[in-house]
Amino acid sequence: MNTHDKTIQEKEEQHAVFTLAPLTDDLSFSYIIKIEQGEDTEFLGVTSIEDAFESILEHPFGTATIHIKNTIPNIEL
């Protein structure tokens, strides 16, 4: 089942893993958040560390693990 097909109530019962990483050497902006919940993975780009934590808190989950990286990830499209 796709995360988008799940209700907010179903998401609120699942554990989520958030991995936050910078996209540039300047840690004051541009972060990517990888959200793994159930069998699904989502990516979210934000402009600041404050926006990142606000986005994490707004995402529905039951329990969470948050990983904060200090290196720029290797992203392949």
Description:
A 4-stranded mixed beta sheet has the order 3-2-1-4. With 77 residues, the protein is of the alpha+beta class. The longest helix is centred in the last third of the chain and has 10 residues, at 49-58. A hairpin with an 8-residue loop joins β1 and β2 (31-37). The chain has helices at residues 8-12, 49-58; strands at 15-22, 31-37, 40-46, 63-68.
How are the secondary structure elements laid out?
Blueprint: H1 8-12, E1 15-22, E2 31-37, E3 40-46, H2 49-58, E4 63-68
Parallel strand pairs: 1-4
Antiparallel strand pairs: 1-2, 2-3
SSE arrangement, N to C = HEEEHE
Give the uncertain stretches in residue-range form: none
From the helix content, strand content and strand pairing, which structural class follows? Answer: alpha+beta
Radius of gyration: 13 Å
Which strand order do you get reading across the main beta sheet? 3-2-1-4
> In percent terms, what proportion of residues is strand?
35-45%
Biggest beta sheet attributes: 4 strands, mixed
What is the 3D form? Answer: elongated
Mean pLDDT: 88
- The number of distinct helices, counting runs of at least 4 residues, comes to 2
**What percent of residues adopt helix (DSSP H or I)?**
10-25%
Count of β-strands: 4
Distance between the termini: 24 Å
